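Amino Acid Chain and Its Fold in Token Form
===========================================
Purpose: to set a sequence beside its fold so the mapping can be learned.
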Amino acid sequence: MQQRSSPNGVVGSSADSVSSALEVLRQKLLVAYDGACAISGCQVAAVLRPVLIDPHGPAEPHNALLLRADLQILFHAGLLTIDAMTLEVLVAPELRDSEYGALAGRRLRQPNRLALRPNRHLLATHHRLFQLEQPATDALAIQRPLLRQLLAVQSWVNSLTFSPDQQMLATGSWDGMLRLWRLPDGQLQRVISGNIGELNAVVFSPDGQRIAAAGRQHGARIWRVADGELLVHLGDDQRHGAFFSIAFQPHGDLIATGGWDPAVYLWHATDGRLSGILPGHDGVINSVAFSPDGNLLLSAGHDRVLRLWQMHDRSLVRAMRGHSDAIFSVTFSPNGQLAASAGGDGLIFIWRVDDGQPLQMLATPSGACFSLAFSPDNQYLASAHYGRIVRIWRVRDGALRWELGGHNESVTSVAFAPGGDLLASGSFDSTVRIWSYQ
């Protein structure tokens, strides 16, 4: 006798067992969600169904949502999804003018018990598949970034940064010189001899009046931009060794440095006095970055661990792991919700700041990644690669939008201009390329 297939494609007793497992899951979810749809709030139990986020995954609460029957169908069809970071509902364009359009932007209801909440990794996967089905409407999908200017630096470029008003670009180089370039014409305005060896990192103060550089010898220094006068010296070669990263605190008076010493040093930006030490790393610290509000600090290096610090009490919030080789770059998104890290393993992680969970893991075929930068609108992430390539990724789904070639040696640094219309890349080929994508 021929067996009958179930709607799930499972036959015979297998279908019965699946049906039984889903009913058990439904009962668990009815209790977990207080008998209401996780999206609409509907409390008619007869129309509430469990939906597996990963259809091939287990029938367990972490892989499920309790939805009204029609929303279950839309979720399965990829016409409705949940943003894993914000937990907001997204609907496909073809639904926006229907009754379902009103659901867009609603926040997903979650069970009180953490163990019964949907897994955000699974939500992120479903969200990514949803985004891949949508037509590309962003500017980078319409026009490829074009080379606008080429600056000859005359030395290997280790670091670069735009001034807050976008009137200058600063470069730090292997020859120990800090160069200030005028924008938009790219004229060299000033060359400052650092006297701290190779300049590994350069950064403007939030008001654009000062600029700091981290050196391979004798610590770090801060100069006045207007005339190049030395204002502050930080650290010394005997105690701290090489500095590889430096960052000004937004809305505060601190500077953070990372280097050979396996601790983050905090300094008063005005006079260079030591303010505090954040111990805990096991090895060289390659990168430090403040959050946009100045309340958090990221640090990472050769121990492959990304550490998040709270500034008000100098405490460790969490350690984030995932890299299999030294981390070379960490950065916050401009809205402070995300962080990104990259290193010698060629992997780029995008992390959610509020709980330290990775949202994306981007694998690259070009070897080590040395530098990362979020676009000012939080939509894109640029990465600088050993393989002479700059990549631009779309943050929401991890899609690779563009690869920018042209450098003849490894790309060591990338930075978006504050206005968002320019991207600069520096390289060991002793040039800076300025790209325009508007």
The chain has two domains: 36-109, 146-436. The chain has five helices and 32 strands.
